[in-house]
Amino acid sequence: xxxxxxxxxxxxxxxxxxxxxxxxxxxxxxxxxxxxxxxxxxxxxxxxxxxxxxxxxxxxxxxxxxxxxxxxxxxxxxxxxxxxxxxxxxxxxxxxxxxxxxxxxxxxxxxxxxxxxxxxxxxxxxxxxxxxxxxxxxxxxxxxxxxxxxxxxxxxx
Length: 157
What we know:
By secondary structure, the protein is α+β, with helices and mostly antiparallel strands.
């Protein structure tokens, strides 16, 4: 069972486990990752993602030398938020641990899940460029295992 907290006590309601999974798998929204840099400053990184509802993990494709990877090598803890900016407001945020995945076959399988959600097809130039980055070893996948979720849904008062 997932640990789900009420993210907006006093208004709205928390999402049920099934509502949370539906929200993360059916809405096409950006995941905002929060990392901490070497100076102790917060860094926010908006990214496309794939959420696996069976294993309760987020997957994000990123450049191997990106700021988020650099930050995560020093501190594997990450914060995340996915929220719908259209009323009635709904969202999911939380904290998780990250594993940086470099296995090419696994990472290609994740790319094949992310791209159709955001661009519609694997054959477009951006998708092909991402695939080439992966094949050259210039990209990795961040596997995020949430510790907890904090959710809110203002459609139900």
